[in-house]
Design a protein that fits this description.
Elements: E1 15-19, E2 36-45, E3 53-59, E4 74-79, E5 83-95, E6 100-104, E7 121-126
Antiparallel strand pairs: 1-7, 2-5, 2-7, 3-4, 3-6
Length: 127
């Protein structure tokens, strides 16, 4: 059996959100305005100063996200200090209702406090 190779380029229809003003407890509701899959998250927290944990919370909902009330569907722990973080999902994380997010120092539905500094850059790759 021979290996076939296709050298034709296909259209790349990924979209992304870049948020460079997320301090935490600033809920972003239905950010993409549609359903789809999340393939990557890049978080540049080089402006942070405290070494405590922080949590990026993702919500599969088109409704308004309310910190401390809305239960996150996905949660990612990161250090709230001067570091870069990335998560990739080759198969994608499905958001069948919508895509909302926030970040805080509290895990789960705990609202927690604001981060030590504004996240310098937060990028979501979505399709």
């Amino acid at each position: 059996m021979a290996v076939a190779q296709n050298n034709q380029f296909t259209a790349i229809d990924f979209r992304y959100i870049k948020d460079d003003a997320l301090l935490g407890n600033n809920e972003r509701s239905n950010a993409f305005g549609t359903t789809g899959k999340l393939y990557a998250i890049f978080l540049d927290n080089t402006t942070g100063s405290a070494s405590a944990s922080a949590y990026l919370k993702l919500f599969d909902t088109a409704a308004t996200v309310v910190g401390g009330t809305t239960v996150p569907d996905f949660e990612f722990r990161f250090t709230n200090d001067a570091t870069l973080h990335s998560w990739t999902f080759p198969e994608g994380l499905t958001f069948s209702n919508g895509f909302g997010y926030t970040a805080s120092t509290g895990a789960g539905t705990t609202k927690g406090g604001n981060l030590a500094a504004v996240i310098k850059s937060l990028i979501f790759v979505f399709k």
